[in-house]
Amino acid sequence: MASKSKTHRLHQLSGTALQSIAKRPRTITTESYMKDAFANYAGYLNELNEKRERVVKASRDITINSKKVIFQVHRISRDNKEEVLKKAEADLVAVKDQYISRLVKELQGTDFWKLRRAYSPGVQEYVEAATFCKFCRTGTLLDLEELNAGLLPLSDPAIEPLQINVLDYLLGLADLTGELMRLAIGRISDGELDFAEKICRFSRDIYRELTLVVPLMDNNSDMKTKMDTMLQSVLKIENACLSVHVRGSEYTLLGSSDPSFLMGVPDMQS
Amino acid sequence: MTGGETDAPASMEKQFEDFRVKLDEAGSLRERIRAVVNEIESITRLMHASLLHVHQSRPLSEVLEKPKAQVDGLKELYGRLAEVLCECPGEYYRFHNDWRSETQTVVSLLAFMHWLETGKLLMHTEAEEKLGMNQAEFALDIEDYLIGLCFLSNEMPRYVVNQVLAGNYDCPRKVLRFLTDLHAAFRMLNLRNDFLRKKFDSLKYDLKRVEEVYYDMKIRHLANGDSAEDNGTQGQS
């Protein structure tokens, strides 16, 4: 398709180049076989680099808009859960339809691995946002199969579909614990202790599962750094939960935004 | 602390178990690839050592004899590489870094041998054929080929110097023309600031060095039978 017309144009190009060569000194004609070949290589590289550019742009857009979904989910509280999640989920679908679809357009066959470094950051952020939403909705981990099933409709059934690979999924999951930590702290200060404990158990599970898988990952130096950060996040969640646990009754005095608890006027929560 | 401390849900466990299996498989594939690549590396080292005789002005046919014989061995090894990759279709570039630099070296050696024999540049398709890398799923990456050509050019200045020392005064002119053409061809490419770009920059320095040797000889009238040809090279009008 696009590549066909490009090489066609290149052959026309070298045709005219050859004509102008005839007028020039003999020495230039000896290199015409080189120039013809390199005209093709130039075409190949141009196409590759332009595609890479487009993929990087799409990846950036995916990143920015996935982050917005994450910020949206952080607004969640006992009172507005349904509203917040509905919007987040709708925004997530928009990310898929508007931005991931652009990736689908560009990537085929060997591109998936060849250009992975160009689109991986965006995909990781998307994984983070999608798993975050799912956890807040159902308390479970969105698995890769389900995530990828959601991407299938974006691709023409005749071509190879864009599917998130294991490595990007795991990298995105590693970042998720950071957001879970922020969520846990936020929920604790709103008095939602059960939610915080759920987050605690969930993060522990993810961390534990990942420790067994990380050593097997390709080029896992990135992931190893993320694991260190992840452990810090898990520790923070656990320590925050410990504080709640130990100070038990003091925390039941915390209302949603009632500063008077300090005066000893309890605002009883359910 | 009692109620919630069950294991991770079964679905999570299962998913991660699947991941472990998949990644384990990729890991063993990678080990097999590395094993083949180590063998490729051994052969290229031998070929390179043989080719180094060219700096000691042994006769060309003698210098090329052993390396040419080893090309078949290389082809066989790349064939084995292709077989391993057949087991994971579409993942050529997943494991590409495991054989990238060795392949670039191989291309530079093949191109050098080709140039010594024919004075011409080994084409991408010719290189692919010599290595059996002209299958749909297993081709010679163009950037690897181009980088290999830059490694070839890196050898040229030293070759020219040693040829002149051995009394071959015609060499600089030939190499200069070749590198000039090669450099001009490379200039047609739009390069990013990556490794290929760096290697292209080194090509410029190789060309400059050969120009210097050629110039030194010319002004001392040491270059043989060059007067008529040279006017051609210089006449850019």
TrEMBL record, chain A:
GO molecular function: sequence-specific DNA binding
Any one cellular-component term (Gene Ontology): nucleus
Chaperone among keywords: no
CDD domains cross-referenced by the UniProt entry: TRAX (cd14820)
SUPFAM superfamilies reported for this sequence: Translin
Protein localization: Cytoplasm; Nucleus
Highest taxon above the source species: Eukaryota
InterPro entries found in the cross-reference section: Translin_C, Translin_fam, Translin_N, Translin_sf
Keywords: Cytoplasm, Nucleus
UniProt xrefs under Pfam families: Translin
Record family assignment: Belongs to the translin family.
Protein name as annotated: Translin-associated factor X
UniProtKB/TrEMBL annotation, chain B:
Domain of life, per lineage: Eukaryota
Protein's organism: Citrus sinensis (Sweet orange)
Name the UniProt record assigns to this protein: Translin family protein
